[in-house]
Design brief:
Layout: E1 2-6, E2 9-12, E3 17-24, E4 29-38, E5 45-50, E6 56-58, E7 66-71, E8 76-81, E9 90-101, E10 104-109, E11 113-118
Length: about 120
């Protein structure tokens, strides 16, 4: 199973970006999907998660500004980021809780996509 993230880049403060992450490979089903981020010198932190049924959860610092969604037919999770701030600068990692068989289940991570917000 591979996760391919895209959509990062350089944006001015107050701007927006839409991140995408597509899962491919031997996938039986996908449970939770989501995004974490890691800034230089800091621990990886939760950004947003979404269950297979569409329930969402957000980190406190992004509530009201970011929106997570998914397209189950495409095995893809999205992150719409609005009102970006310099402190949102980080490498954003997507993940997916994938069932590859009736009895096989693992978390998989994407390679990370850089988001840089200039002031």
């Amino acid at each position: 199973v591979q996760l391919q993230a895209s959509g990062g880049g350089l944006v001015q403060s107050g701007g927006s970006l839409r991140l995408s992450c597509a899962a491919s490979g031997s996938i039986f089903s996908i449970n939770g999907m989501g995004w974490f981020r890691q800034a230089p010198g800091k621990q990886r932190e939760l950004v947003a998660t979404i269950t297979g049924g569409g329930s969402t959860n957000y980190g406190d610092s992004v509530k009201g500004r970011f929106t997570v969604s998914r397209d189950n037919a495409k095995n893809t999770v999205y992150l719409q980021t609005n009102s970006l701030r310099p402190e949102d600068t980080a490498v954003y990692y997507c993940y997916a809780d994938v069932r590859t068989g009736l009895w096989k289940r693992n978390d998989y991570w994407g390679q990370g996509t850089q988001v840089t917000v200039s002031s």
